[in-house]
Amino acid sequence: MRIGFFDSGIGGMTVLQQALRFLPNEDYIFYADTLHVPYGEKPKEEVREYIFNAVDFMANQGIKALVIACNTATSIAVDDLRKKFDFPILGIEPAVKPAVQSCEGKRKKVLVLATNLTLREEKFQNLVKSIDHHDIVESLPLPGLVEFAENFEFREEKVVPYLKEKLSSFNLKEYGTIVLGCTHFPYFENSIKKIFPEEVDIISGSIGTSKNLKRILETKNQINEGTGDIVFFKSGYKVEDKETLSNYKKLLVMLDRKSPLTTGA
């Protein structure tokens, strides 16, 4: 059986790429709900319906575990999904805890970059309240990065001016760690590094999620020796056109190499 990965779009491939490092011989299904991306700017109940429809579809494909590779979807649906389905379901959330732990001793702030819906959700607010005892966590929604990614627009000459505009009111020297709280955002790590001082750390939750996935499968004796095959779906339809498949595979290769991404990746 395959491992399922789900996201509103191509952002979840930044998590899938990490899973491939830890579990290279597993077979995967990657489901991008491209008809409804972006999730982060839509009403919560509408997004919940999209999520449950997608997971119903993936469950019918026969999966042994599911990774919700989307911070927004995790924040609004992961608990209810676990109540409905009997296979392990892993979510991803902004890596606020390690960021706070790192910055407290440095007397620096943490900046969480995410979507509007993730930042508004009670799950995120409760996470910050439980950890941020010295009021050092700040946040900024960057929905434009999701649009850039879904349009395969990764050129720094396009992305950097957007980031500079959104961050123009921030004192960038105050921050010790930037948390990438949307799985689309690691595509733009090189651009983000150009904005902030060199010593600022940039982290996401994808490595922790992938390690947890491996641990759960090992505990259940469900580690398989497959071929590393990935079947891609877009909003319920199998991706079979060669250009899209080629673009998806190039994204994974570039993420693995940590190469700068360019248009037409």
Task: Describe the 3D structure.
It is globular, with a radius of gyration of 18 Å. The longest helix is centred in the N-terminal third of the chain and has 18 residues, at 44-61. Helix 1 packs across helix 10. The chain is built from eleven helices and ten strands. The chain is α/β, with parallel strands linked by helices and 265 residues long. The active site is at residues 70, 182.
Name the descriptors.
265 residues, alpha/beta, Rossmann fold, 2 domains, six-stranded mixed β-sheet, four-stranded parallel β-sheet, 11 helices, 10 strands, Asp/Glu_racemase_AS_1, glutamate racemase activity, identical protein binding, cell wall biogenesis/degradation
Helices and strands, in N-to-C order?
A: EHEHEHEHEHHEHHEHEHEEH
Low-confidence stretches: 259-265
What is the CATH first-level class name of the largest domain?
A: Alpha Beta
Sheet with the most strands: spatial strand order: 4-3-1-2-9-10
The first-to-last residue Cα distance is: 30 Å
Strand composition percent: 15-25%
What overall form do the CA principal axes indicate? globular
The SS-based structural class is alpha/beta
* CATH architecture label name of the largest domain: 3-Layer(aba) Sandwich
Largest sheet: 6 strands, mixed
Radius of gyration computed on alpha carbons: 18 Å
Mean pLDDT: 93
Number of domains: 2
User: What is the count of helical runs?
Assistant: 11
Strand tally: 10
Helix fraction by DSSP (H/I, runs of at least 4): 40-55%
CATH fold description of the largest domain: Rossmann fold
